[in-house]
Structure formats: structure tokens, C-alpha cells
């Protein structure tokens, strides 16, 4: 470097270093951090606590959905038919026909045996009484509101039409004329059709 | 590893404890796997049938006694379905449809696509309630044998619900089935 050349800002004279910032901090780890000394840590800690929180959230969600599926209790012996033109489920009393038993929301409400033996359409008295009681209870709890009259029938695919028609007729007589049949969705069909909601 | 320090350095027995996090995480993972396997992802839906014929009660007073055409679906024949358009007790038209099952699932489900197509065609020709603002639906009456299995009944109801039309739900138009199905109680 020649002496005639003016010093650019890139070519400055070497000076004695002065005081360094953060050099006198008594805490070693803070000094190390702020000075940027030391290499990058090789050992990494897995953040276990957030991971456990995440797992607990999944467990709670699954447990909640597990119990929610209990809102539509389907008897293991009942094999529901499937349909394509369906609508979404609704919150309504469920009348299940399992084997020879008729259940209203899980409580026994008659038998199909008498209908099959008589081989003719019959009003099922127990079912009628239970549905009538349900209707009266709803009217007491929701005074002034129009009663929707919706009932969902959960029927095995092998049950004869005579039994289905008897239950259908009894439900209509008991004040639930809007009858829906619980079915599975065929081929992931979307919710349209299947009757007016 | 997480720990609990309760102090007390003088006693013989150690009071500081480590919570075994790894077995705890293993347990949680097992629980998640179990719940995922056993969870029932409900695919339940419903298909409607209405005992209110000719339809739900309306606030509008009845204007005139006009006999509407109803489609009677006769499924008692072993080889064919019969579609009968009736005005009251007067038969307007009768159509035969071959009873041809088509498998529609691994669990023995079946459908009647020929019947569905014919019903759709018939509704297009003879359906009365078409406008989205029309609150009434055309009526279909299902005639079944007493011994007909329920799965067969559902397959036919499914076919009846194939034709769809627009329906006005307070300014919002949705597709609904063109027919309202009920059972013939005979």
C-alpha cells in the first residue's frame, strides 16, 4: 500500500481495541450468550412437555368423540341397510327393532312376536304409550312450540315389512307422523334427497 | 426428565423423584392408537317417510278440492315393479319396470337403478309440484308384501328419492327429493 493514496474507509489504521461491550457481566452463561461465544450446542432436548400436552389433547378429543358416538347406539345384532339418497341424522327419539324386541331410546316398548304370529298390521300398545308420553313431555318442556313429530326407526335389514309398517303406523298414531329410517350412507353419498328435512 | 424436588436433604430416603416421562408418553401413544382403532366414525344417515298425506299441515286454508295425481309403487311382484299414477281411485297410467337388482356394496347391498331411472322419467313427465316456491311435494305410495325384507323396502324408497327438485327454505334454495313417500297400509 503506497503512502500517497488516501485512506479509504476500507483501509483504516489499526488501533488498540477499547472496552468491549458486555464483557464484564458476572454471570458466565449470560456473557457467553451475548458475546456469541462457543459453538452451537450439539445436544438437543426434545420439548417433551408440549408433546405430552399434544398427546393429551388427542386423547381427550378421541375420548369425547368415543362417547359422542354413543348418542347413536346401534345394537350389534342390527345390520342397517344402506341408501344413496339420504339426509343427515336429526335429534329425535329412536325406535329400535332388535330381534323380537322393540326399544324406545333403549327402553323396552313391546315385542314383534304378536305381529308376526297374527300376520296382520297391528297397533303396538306399549310403543304407543311410550311415544305418547314422550310427546306429552316434549309439549310440557316446550310450551307453545309446534311439535316436530320426528321419530327415527332403527331396523335390521331382515325385519319383515309387516313389522316395519306396524311400527310406522303406531308411531303415526302416537303423534310422530314424520318417520325416518336410519340407514348407512352408500358410497359416501352427500346429503341431498332422502325426503324433506 | 421431569422431576419433583421437595427439599429435605437430611433424611435417609430420597425425597426427590423423577417422573418417568418416557413410559408415560408410551402409555399415551398406546391409548391414542387404541382409541383410533376402536373409534366408530359414524356414517349414519336417515331416509324419510311421512305418514302425513297429502303433506304436513299448512297455515293456508284449503282452496279447492282437487284430486292430485299420486304415484303408487307396487313392489309385490317377483319379476317386476308396477308404477301406477292415480287420481283418487282413478288409474291414470300404469308402467311396468323389470325388477333388476344391481349390487352396490360388499355387504350385500343392492339397488334398483332401472326403477330409479323410470321414476325420474315419470316425475319429469307427470310431476305436479316443481317450482322451488311450491311447499308441497308429489306423493308416492309404497305397496309392499308383508314378508318383504326391510332392505328391499329401503332400496325401493331410495329409488323413489332419486328425482330431486329445488326447494325454497326461506330464501335459500336447496335440492330435495321430489317425492314424499308413505306406506300403503293394506
Salient structural properties:
heterodimer, A: 197 residues, alpha/beta, six-stranded mixed β-sheet, B: 186 residues, alpha+beta, Nucleotidyltransferase, domain 5, five-stranded mixed β-sheet, two-stranded antiparallel sheet, 23% helix, 33% strand, elongated
Report what the structure shows.
The complex is a heterodimer of chains A (197) and B (186). Chain A is built from five helices and seven strands, in the order H-H-E-E-E-E-E-H-H-E-H-E. Chain A is of the alpha/beta class. Chain A has a domain at 75-185. The mean pLDDT of chain A is 80. Chain B is α+β, with helices and mostly antiparallel strands and 186 residues long. Chain B is built from three helices and twelve strands. Chain B has helices at 21-38, 113-126, 150-160, and strands at residues 3-4, 17-18, 44-50, 69-74, 80-87, 90-98, 102-103, 110-111, 138-143, 164-169, 172-177, 179-183. The longest helix of chain B has 18 residues, at 21-38. Chains A and B meet through helix 2, strand 1, strand 2, helix 5 and strand 7 of A and helix 1, strand 3, helix 3, strand 11 and strand 12 of B.
Q: Which ranges of chain B are low-confidence, i.e. pLDDT below 50, for 5 or more consecutive residues?
A: none
CATH topology of the domain at 69-183 in chain B: Nucleotidyltransferase, domain 5
What is the H/E order of chain A? Answer: HHEEEEEHHEHE
Q: Which strand order does the major sheet of chain A show?
A: 1-7-6-3-4-5
Question: Portion of residues in helices of chain B?
Answer: 10-25%
Shape type of chain A = rod-shaped
Number of helical elements of chain B? 3
How many distinct beta strands of chain A?
7
The separation of the N and C termini of chain B measures 75 Å
Q: Ends of chain A: how far apart?
A: 92 Å
